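Re: the request from the purification team.
They wanted to know what the chain is likely to look like in 3D before they choose a buffer screen. I agreed to run a prediction and write the result into the notebook, where they can find it.
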Amino acid sequence: MSDELRRTRIGGSEVGAVLGCDPYRDAHALWVFKHGLAEPGPPNIRMKLGLALEPGVLHLYADDTGYTVTRGGYMCPHPTIPFMVYSPDGLIDGERRGVDAKVVSYDQRHHWGEDADHVPPHIQLQCHWYMIALNYEYWDLAVVFPGLEFRRYTIEKDPVFEEWILERAEEYWRRYLIGDEEPPIGAAEASKHYLARRFPRNLHPPRDATPEETAWLEEYGELRRAAKSLETAKKTLQARLTRAIGDSDGLLWSRGKMTWKLTKDSSKIQWEKLGESLLKDYADDEKAALEHQFTETKPGYRRVYYRRDGDDNDND
């Protein structure tokens, strides 16, 4: 598929960001990547592991259900929906049913419940996207959890819900992918890097805030105050828990554990003192030449400073 099609179409793994329920990226971050304003990071170990184990998970699914699975993994543009691409993991021979393989890590297990209603929303949307694309009635999720637990979830077609998904996706496509609008910015790292690249320097003096910006500034101040209060509460509770742990390794409870352990000793070379020792017998001009040779400029960056009357105005 051409880069142009990738940029101007929405895939199953992206529709959750469009609809605001992807925990890893939002609508603005997706826009940043689609327009080439930031490069996606390299695949992490979760992505690599999921891809490597996908054939085995699909094999478990076929063994559990008796279905014959035709592997997918290819990217297809929809023939009539101009903003849709899809890339299913597998299709079931002789059935209007598809399947996606998932490998869930320990720290994500709590997001998955006992039935299809308690599958993470962005994963449900991915399944509905594929059912829309292929006009299938069912989409299964073959999921492997920590402890070698295998589970199958079935998402059923919902025409009313899927019509709403298409409406929202088409609006995003028209406004932000083929249109010239920018989505509201969010907290994603991609958006942060985009801002740093687009506005690398402050070129103008401060100006008076608009009424809308004033409301944002006041809300920001209240959030800072609440965050500081929460951080104090967190530190207090941590102190109580470490006091309770005392000289044991930690505390266990039904949902996990908290430990307080001594780290190993470490060593660190004091490079500045080492340099001073090595240079002590050099003449001043020789020292200056060496210091110049081994000095590099660290680029500046724009740092947020916030002050509000009546607050404890320590910087973020």
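For the purification team: The chain is about 45% helix and 15% strand.
Please add any questions underneath this entry.
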